[in-house]
Specification:
The complex is a heterodimer of chains A (258) and B (109). Helix content of chain A is 70%, strand content 3%. Chain A has 258 residues and is mainly alpha-helical. In chain A, a hairpin with a 2-residue loop joins strand 1 and strand 2. The radius of gyration of chain B is 16 Å and the shape is elongated. The longest helix of chain B has 28 residues. In chain B, helix 1 crosses helix 2. In chain B, strands 2-4-3 form a 3-stranded antiparallel β-sheet. The relative contact order of chain B is 0.15. Helix content of chain B is 56%, strand content 19%. Chain B is an alpha+beta fold and 109 residues long. Chain B is built from 4 helices and 4 strands. The chains are: A mainly alpha (258), B alpha+beta (109).
């Protein structure tokens, strides 16, 4: 038992000193009582303590300002990730899918002919389609079941990593920078403390998502549609698909996403 | 607070409804109340106790050393008791209505 006490005491050193002084002895007693009858530390108990300790060190608890900010930003962040996903799903993957179904295989990108309608992943260009659908589902899930937003966000990050790896290894992957933006938007949901109450974030999330979609549409949507209409008449161009949104959002990464 | 309360939070408050308990006592009572469905781990429990104390829903109710181990006891504050009562009544109303509808539909096992 004294070995176990030592192991738990070592584990509790991950907490900030002030918290350890306040709670250390009490937590040690609880951990030891929980593991009564066993002579080894439970890995899941240890992982649970580690997560809490890291949150304490980073100030990501609801008692701290950073924790409260993350709590407020978590669901709208997922909604923004979903808005990006909807936009690129519709205006990149879906448009290319439609062009492809008309037997068109290329377009002029920045004045240069490119085979942009090539399909590398089923009827779609890249494994990005999995990522976009994943984040749309994640945002919907987090809005309906806010208690599980961390699990949903972690699922989204997992799908993104997996789809990127699959794309790089076997098919074609969207370029990493846009994916990093999407994952960064989901980080508050991963890092935020667990909420005690299911606060309704639908309003702020909807406003954030609609504002981003409007901005993206305002900067590049009409050109895309115009070019889509022109596509079959010998004047194809995808160039402005990238130009507008990048300019305003300062996300040059988006321009290189495809 | 009119928002829906998370289940583990409700269970911890309910565990304290009968009087003061220490950390491990809360873990045991939550497991009993949830029929083994919810097992709180130490990190999660103390994160929750910190939040509930910060929101003035629970207060410290003494401490003692038992077999060389520190036990710190917690109990519901007046605010915590009121909130638990409101949440419990809300759940009772919803449950009763659900059972009534199941009975009418003939789906009550």
């Amino acid at each position: 038992v004294s070995d176990l006490r030592k192991r738990y005491a070592r584990l509790l050193r991950v907490y900030p000193r002030s918290y350890r002084e306040q709670r250390g002895e009490e937590m040690l007693a609880t951990l030891l009582e929980t593991s009564t009858g066993t002579h080894h530390s439970d890995t899941r108990d240890a992982a649970d303590v580690l997560i809490h300790a890291v949150q304490m060190r980073l100030g990501l608890t609801t008692e701290r300002f950073a924790g409260r900010v993350l709590d407020v930003a978590a669901t709208p962040g997922l909604a923004l990730a979903a808005a990006f996903s909807i936009y690129f799903f519709v205006f990149v993957e879906l448009f290319r899918f439609i062009y492809r179904s008309y037997g068109l295989t290329g377009a002029v990108v920045n004045g240069r002919w490119s085979y942009v309608v090539q399909t590398h992943f089923g009827p779609f260009s890249t494994t990005g389609i999995l990522i976009y659908l994943g984040w749309i589902l994640v945002a919907a899930g987090a809005l309906v079941w806010p208690f599980h937003r961390r699990s949903f966000a972690a699922f989204g990050v997992g799908v993104t990593v997996l789809a990127m790896a699959l794309g790089k290894l076997f098919f074609a992957a969207p370029r990493a920078p846009l994916m990093l933006v999407i994952v960064a938007l989901a980080l508050p949901a991963v890092l935020a403390p667990r909420p005690d109450y299911a606060r309704n974030r639908f309003g702020s999330s909807a406003v954030a998502a609609v504002a981003l979609l409007a901005l993206l549409w305002w900067r590049s949507g009409p050109q895309i549609l115009n070019e889509a209409l022109w596509y079959g008449r010998g004047r194809p161009s995808f160039g402005s698909l990238y130009a507008g949104s990048v300019y305003d959002l300062g996300t040059s990464c988006i321009s290189s996403a495809y | 607070m009119s928002e829906e309360m998370r289940e583990p939070t409700f269970l911890v408050l309910a565990a304290l409804a009968g009087g003061r308990r220490h950390g491990y006592g809360i873990i045991q009572e939550v497991e009993r109340l949830s029929d083994g469905g919810t097992h709180l781990r130490a990190g999660t429990l103390y994160a929750m106790l910190d939040r509930l104390a910060h929101d003035d829903l629970i207060v410290l109710a003494g401490e003692e050393v038992v077999e060389g181990r520190l036990r710190r006891y917690y109990e519901l504050s007046t605010k915590g008791s009121s909130l638990l009562a409101v949440e419990s009544r809300r759940r009772v109303v919803v449950s009763k209505e659900a059972l009534r509808r199941l009975r009418i539909a003939g789906n009550l096992a």
